[in-house]
């Protein structure tokens, strides 16, 4: 991969991982409720998903899934339903005081992994990256040696930042009313993402 191609890919990935989406909302929520240190398990889950999707993209599996309307529709609807559920639950529980409980680390990880994995937006993003930036005349794994560390580093920095933002808000001793509205805004974001993902057209199919 040329330096110019790497620069363009890097700029694309910065925009991709810093644009607020379900992963960012979950990181902020985790940071507010669990603190920065424990919430980093959620960032690890996102990196797990990113590594998996990069591998699948390199092998052409993601392109195959997107080429199948049925597979993509099922993934899209599952992701949309899960996000809407999280949003509605956030609204219902907004006035319930957040209890300081020991959430198992495994649960934090699996929840973040589920949000990252079933989000069809991720599939579209990874496909866009590979269709635009992978050069067909260069061995794919040679390019992966550049793409993998770049994408994973930027992803880690972005979602660590979102998590730190949430942790910072939590430590600021915000009033109870503001906390309620922050939680409702986050819940609304999940609902909006779910509706948009559920109604979005399959990439490449209009």
What would the keywords be for this entry?
mainly alpha; globular; disordered C terminus; 206 residues; single chain
Provide the fold topology.
Layout: H1 3-18, H2 22-34, H3 36-59, H4 61-67, H5 69-92, H6 105-117, H7 120-133, H8 140-171, H9 176-199
Helix pairs in contact: 1-8, 2-3, 2-6, 2-8, 2-9, 3-6, 3-7, 3-8, 5-9
What report would you give on this structure?
The chain is an all-alpha fold and 206 residues long. The protein has helices spanning 3-18, 22-34, 36-59, 61-67, 69-92, 105-117, 120-133, 140-171, 176-199. The longest helix is centred in the C-terminal third of the chain and has 32 residues, at 140-171. The model is unreliable at 173-178 and 202-206 (pLDDT under 50).
Question: What is this structure, in a nutshell?
Answer:
The protein is an all-alpha fold and 206 residues long. The protein is 81% helix and 0% strand.
Percent helix: over 70%
| Secondary structure: number of strands | 0
Q: SSE order in H/E notation? A: HHHHHHHHH
Q: What's the Cα radius of gyration?
A: 18 Å
Low-confidence stretches: 173-178, 202-206
Overall pLDDT level: 74
Largest sheet: none
SS-derived structural category: mainly alpha
Relative strand content: under 5%
* Terminal Cα span: 31 Å
């Amino acid at each position: 991969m040329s330096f110019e191609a790497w620069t363009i890919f890097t700029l694309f990935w910065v925009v991709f991982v810093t644009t607020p989406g379900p992963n960012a909302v979950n990181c902020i929520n985790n940071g507010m409720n669990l603190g920065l240190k424990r919430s980093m398990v959620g960032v690890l889950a996102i990196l797990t998903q990113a590594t998996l999707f990069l591998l699948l993209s390199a092998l052409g599996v993601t392109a195959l899934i997107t080429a199948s309307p049925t597979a993509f529709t099922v993934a899209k609807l599952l992701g949309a339903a899960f996000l809407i559920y999280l949003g509605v639950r956030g609204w219902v529980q907004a006035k319930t005081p957040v209890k300081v409980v020991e959430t198992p680390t495994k649960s934090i990880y699996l929840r973040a992994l589920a949000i990252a994995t079933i989000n069809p937006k991720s599939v579209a993003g990874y496909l866009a990256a590979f269709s635009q930036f992978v050069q067909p005349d260069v061995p794919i794994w040679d390019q992966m040696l550049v793409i993998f560390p770049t994408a994973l580093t930027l992803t880690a920095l972005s979602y660590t930042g979102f998590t730190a933002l949430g942790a910072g808000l939590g430590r600021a001793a915000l009033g109870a009313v503001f906390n309620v509205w922050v939680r409702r805004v986050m819940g609304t974001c999940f609902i909006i993402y779910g509706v948009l993902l559920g109604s979005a057209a399959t990439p490449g199919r209009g």
